[in-house]
Amino acid sequence: MQEFATSRGRVQGARVHTPDGDAIAVLGVPTATVPDRFRPAAPADRWTGLRASAQGPLSWQGAGSAGALPMSEQDCLTANVWLPVTQSDPRAVLVWVHGGAHLVGSNGDPLCDGARLAAAQDLIVAAISYRLGAFGHLRLDHLLGDDYADAGNLALGDVLSGITWVRDEIAAFGGDPSRITVMGQSAGGAIVSFLLAESDDETPFQRVIIESAPAERAHTPDRAAQVTAELLYEIGGRGADPRDLLRAPAPEIIAAQQRVVERWQGALRGPATPFRPIIDGRFVHGLPRRRIADGCGIAIDALIGTARNEASASVDLMHLAAHDALPALESELESMGRGGEAGSYIAACAEDDHRTLTSAEVLESLVTDRHYRGPTNRLLEARRRTGSRTFAYLFAWPRPDTASWSRRAGHSLELPFVFRHLDDSAVAVEEVGDAPPRGLSESMSALWASFVRAGSPYAASVGQWPPFAEDRATLVLDEQIDVVHDPFAGRRRWASSRDVDR
Q: What is the CA radius of gyration of the chain?
């Protein structure tokens, strides 16, 4: 056992054995506390004695996603820290921000456990938590006054607080507070995008990795007020007292929140996210691509990309027939204000893929473009135009089909490759199948770690990865790793043929 002294108290690390070597895990370290519902976090309470390493309580979410782990409003803000067992000079630090549609997830996901990455790549990995759903994103100032002016973006504040905790405390674990990279995927990637776009000279990180981020998913204050009204109606019906939101037990709010989510799910393909960042003019001043186009975050290096088939969980590539897929494609285009353009989009896909796609494949591609690839392209373009140092990737390895599901290079599939969890648990095998390419995991973890250490992604097995520039150089990650220039040029030109500002 090893002990570490933080500013709030002493913590104990537990030695863990991995196929990549031993590591020290220090789990459940409080980074902050929540003194009151819908209010900003405060510094963690001090403790006496030696705090054991154990997963902390999860942020409130549906019981089905939390498993058997306890949930808490007050004590959900924690960090899990993994470090190599050997002593060395201060190590670079990777801070992990989990995804989950702003509704579910935790810093204890076994596929994102940092022990193997820390041991193999000589890094410190810290996974932080934040408030979810209505507890993290609910506009209340219009109902309860200025005391609740920050309620709409508490999740962002929690993440920033967690990163600040890492900066201030990581030296005690052997980390270098001047070399912090923040990595987020999906909702976590969106959060990192907003933090990048709101960064300034006091920002507590130097680099970012943004994976599969719906970085244009934000509410205006008026739209956020409508979501609050929906939730309040579910809590107390017509004429409900807004203060019922302060008094209701957390499970009651989660149940009401789920009913709101289910209504949203019936309205569109893709993730239903009624609870999301709010452009409040306080914490968030605009969409990331607009802020970045104005020069925000220009000095922060970035590694940004998507998976090829982000929407394969929303579109059944195996069973969806053309007579169902084509009307769904037209409906999706209508909702985007691009009705009647199915033919031109189908042609763009054929141009990129050098074959005619099935109707289901085209629909999946459009949903991917709408929620992930399009926003990421616009974020990359904004970075390019300001001269910011950025590296672009596309995760393209297709998971072999099962008897019932064709996932391909689906949403979040790259994570076990980065964190090196391909075969060490039943969960890992279920995620990546029986025979994932181990060399791809070796290369990806090395590339990501190299970027964390020095801002330049390098792996001996991979050739030169040039920064994203006018030629739109993108590293395509498959069993064969290659640099491709503008890999979805046809789709990108189709998307940019209309003004995307909404």
A: 22
Look up the pTM and report it.
0.97
**One-character DSSP codes across 194-252:** HHHHT--TT-S-SEEEEES--TT--B-HHHHHHHHHHHHHHHH-TT--TTHHHHS-HHH
With b for 16 or more beta-carbon neighbours within 10 A and e for fewer, the 25-49 pattern comes to bbbbbbbbbbeebbebbeebeeeee
Task: Give average pLDDT by consecutive 10-residue segment, the chain, 502 residues.
Answer: 94 96 98 97 97 96 86 97 94 98 96 98 98 98 97 98 98 98 98 97 96 96 97 92 96 96 82 93 96 96 98 95 95 93 97 97 97 96 96 97 94 98 94 96 98 95 94 97 97 83 45
Q: Are 408 and 368 spatial neighbours (Cβ–Cβ below 8 Å)?
A: no
Angstrom distance (rounded) from CA 24 to CA 245 = 41
Report the DSSP beta bridge partners of residue 2.
13
What is the DSSP pairing of strand 10-18 with strand 21-30? antiparallel
DSSP 395: E
Report CA-CA distances (Å) from 397 to 4, 55, 167, 411. Answer: 40, 32, 35, 12
Output the CA torsion sign for 146, 152, 158, 163: negative
Instruction: Indicate which residues carry an active-site annotation.
Output: 186
